[in-house]
TrEMBL record:
Keywords: Amino-acid transport, Signal, Transport. Residues 1-20 form the signal peptide. Belongs to the leucine-binding protein family. The lineage of its organism: Bacteria, Pseudomonadati, Pseudomonadota, Alphaproteobacteria, Hyphomicrobiales. It comes from the Bacteria. This is Amino acid/amide ABC transporter substrate-binding protein (HAAT family). Pfam families: Peripla_BP_6. It comes from Chelatococcus asaccharovorans.
Amino acid sequence: MKRLTLLALALVLSGGVAIADTIKIGVVGPFSGPAAQQGRNFQAGIDAWLALNGNKIGNDTIEIVYRDLPTADPAKSAALTRDLIVGEGVRYLAGYYYTPDAMAAAPILVEGNVPMVVFNAATSAIMNASPYVVRTSFTTWQTSTPMAAVARERGIKKAITVVTDYGPGVDAESAFVKGFKDAGGEIVASVRMPMNTNDFSPIMQRIKDSGAEAVFAFLPSGPATLGFMKAFAENGLKKAGITLLAPGDLTQESDLPALGDSALGTLTTFHYAVSHDSPENKAFVAAASKAIGDPASLTFPAVGAYDGMYVISKMIEATKGKQDAKAAVEAVKGLSWISPRGPVTIDPQNRHITQNIYLREVASENGKSINKEIRTFEKQGDPGWKAP
Ligand code: PHB
């Protein structure tokens, strides 16, 4: 319910001047449980944006309403999403760490007249699940495709792929296999692991036995990626001469201290490194570090959220605070800006973010492990998107 002050009411009656309103943004993410740190990064990105830009857009005040979704749980995601729209009256939805959660929320958007800005979930097909989805993260097709080129350039002929068996894993596998084969490489095996896998020793043995020179791996960032990286080190794969190639989900900055020297030299491709050298990133990292409290836990979901807030602010501006999901989404098609990650654009065709993908190497600088950017693949769209 809008609360009109007498003055605002008088203004409206006298000439239709816009009235001040509170616009609620519902954010769904893992704020507790094993992936809570990823949710804290959503919140840090949002808080950083609010600290640098304020919580007013024109006359309107924005208010964030959080809902906790600890693990991938499509039924709960749909229930929370409906509750945010119907119970809380949110005008925008945002967040969604895991693909199944974004997929389950997407069909609700049109009836609710609410746009959704995906801060993380990275399967290409999400964009086709609703015309009201916009995404400020990445897709695993987008991050994995350049890695196939890098592998071939570095002389790797035989590779094995190992991915978590759900949307972004299957996409990462498809992207790497296509790019690697197109460039003349051979895939000796493709392994898909159930999402709840936490003992990676048998997988490491399979990789060793496969005869591959390199393993391309994707797992969703969180406890599983740390477990996989530790198993890779502890089972002596590096010593056996096997190169690990992965999108940057496997070397998120918060995991690097626990991996220590074992991760040094690991090559990954990704859209964002906390160490990215630009004035926009320095300002972002300062604000987001303050927001998260423990700067060592700052990682990529924060930049998806920060840029997502920018996109939502542009939607609110364009619709002058009116609830019009179609107009809001139209207004950000083709929107370009300088993100902390580099120059970006919302692709007007599929509403996913076009961005640089960087090749990075885990390196030690001033006694701290970082993802050091060593090469840029400019203006990458989503090679995995297919017109519906
Ligand atoms: C996803 O579920 O889409 C997802 C989650 C975590 C990642 C990447 C993709 O690191």
